[in-house]
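Sequence, structure tokens reproduced for reference:
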Amino acid sequence: MTDRDPVSTPQGDSPISQTLDWHDGDMPYSQEFGDHFYCRTDGRLECGHVFLSGNSLPDRWRDMAAGGRFRIGELGFGTGLNFCETWRQWKRARAPGTHLHFTSFELYPMKRDEIDRALARWPEIDVERQALAEAWPDEPTGQVTIALDEQTRLTVVCGAALDGVTAAEPDFDAWFLDGFAPSRNPAMWSPELMQILFDRTRPGGSFATYAAAGFVRRNLGAAGFIVERRPGFAGKREMLCGTRPDLLPAGD
């Protein structure tokens, strides 16, 4: 087995396959949630605007000392687009001896050919797409871990996000909150999940999301995050980002 061969650790029931439609030839649409997997304007550019810039990346990577590790958590792996664009940017900014561990929580993991088809529209991530598709298991179940290069590791936890985040090790540096729209998938934005996510974030850690619904903002604030509203992508009025305070109030 090579370093890039996936290790799939069974955990609980096998994930359920979802039914996809394909719009405009290569844009996946989930029948279960009635929503597209990414912005129809340009999902890759949206990733940069929302998730990378919203978490002050790649600037934070440039400040890492040798031997440092940066942990990103993501709600909703989907096509793997956010991971591929993040990996591309990470390779350009990282210092020798630093490490990125990207952990995503996905209820309905896609098949290899679905991931490959969905990402093929972006030549900018051809290298990353091909590497991900090559390493992706035939039947993703449980916890899939792939060492994609000597400084980058991907883990996809297949199953309900609440269960996966609850069982995750703490001290995430940044979160990409990219579930389907809150109106279509409210469980991904629940107060309980936002609180557990906060508890798994290191002091000074951050989050970013395209979502700006009032109940999402309130749930994140109630969990303890300092929440900021910023202009959204491609004409969307707002997005949210924020941080966990360095110090918690006495008694917390």
